[in-house]
Amino acid sequence: MKTPAPKTPTPTIKPRKALWFGSIVLAALILLALFRPFTRIDTGQIGVVRTFNGKIADEPAAVGWHTTFTSRIDKYTVKEIPVQLQDLRPTTKENISLRDLDFEIQYSVNPMKTPMIAAKYSNMNGYEQSSGIYIPAYMLVEKQAKSVSADAVSRFEALAINAKRNELENIIRTNLQKDLDANDPDTFTVSRVTISNLLPDEKIQESIRMIADSENRKQVAINKLEIAKTEAEENRVRSQSLDDKILAEKTLEALIKMGEKGNVVVVPLDFKGTIMTGTGSSRPQTAPARPQ
C-alpha cells in the first residue's frame, strides 16, 4: 500500500501586503487627478508652456498630448476671433455725436507669436470659463478698435456717413491693422470689419428724411415733365400727319374738279405738282374753204 504524497501548500497574499498594494494604486490615481500630468491640445488651439517659476517658453506646444509634470500648458485659440463693439457714440466731422454705432471685428494671431503675446499682454488676454481657452490680446484689440473707429467717424459729415458704411468699414480695418503692426509686426491679422448699426443724431435723421422726401418729389416732377413732353410730341406728330392727309385729300378734290372741265388738261410733274394747259374753246374751229 502506497503512502500518498504530501500536498504542496498554495501561496497566499497576506492581507497586509494586499492593503499596501491597493493604497499605492489609490494614491497614484489621486495624484493623477490632482496634478493632471497630461494635457491635450486640439485643432484650432496652441499651447503656451508656463514653468512652475512662471516663465513662459518661447516655443508653443503643438496639437497633441503633452506631459505637464514640471510645467503648465495653457490653451490659446488660433481661430478667427470676433470682437463685438456696441453702443459707441463717436463724433462726426461737425462734432455731432452719433446716436449709436455697433460693429464687429474679426482678427487672428500668428500661432508662433502666441507665447510672446501671452507674456506681453498678460493682463489683456481674454478667457472663456466654459472651455478653459484663452483669447490672445482680446482687450488690446477691443481698445484699439474703439480708438480707430472714433478717428474714422470724425472724417465724415453727419448727413453723408450713413451712406458710406463700406468706406467707413475699410478705414477702420486698414487703420486698426496699421496700429497693431506698429507695435507687433507680423502678429495680428484683421480680416473683416462689419457695421451692424449706424444711427445718426435724431435731428440729422430728420434732415436726411426731409432731403429724401424732397428728392423724391423732385424726381416725380421730372418724371411727369418727361411724360408730358412725350405726350406733346406724340400729339404733334399725330396732328401733322393728319394735316398732311387732309391737304392731300383737298388737293385731290381740286384736281378732280379741274379735270372735269373740257378746256383743262391736268399733267402731273414728277408727282410733285401739276401743270394746267389751256386748250382753247370747246368747239372745233372750221377750216377756211379753199377757192374753186
TrEMBL record:
UniProt-annotated location(s): Membrane
Record's GO cellular component terms: membrane
Coiled coil: 211-242
Keywords attached to this entry: Coiled coil, Membrane, Transmembrane, Transmembrane helix
Record domain Band: where: 40-226
Transmembrane parts of this sequence: 18-35
Membrane topology annotation: Single-pass membrane protein
Keyword Oxidoreductase: no
InterPro entries: Band_7, Band_7/SPFH_dom_sf
Principal subcellular localisation of the protein: membrane
Protein name in UniProt: SPFH domain / Band 7 family
Organism: Kingella potus
Lineage: Bacteria, Pseudomonadati, Pseudomonadota, Betaproteobacteria, Neisseriales
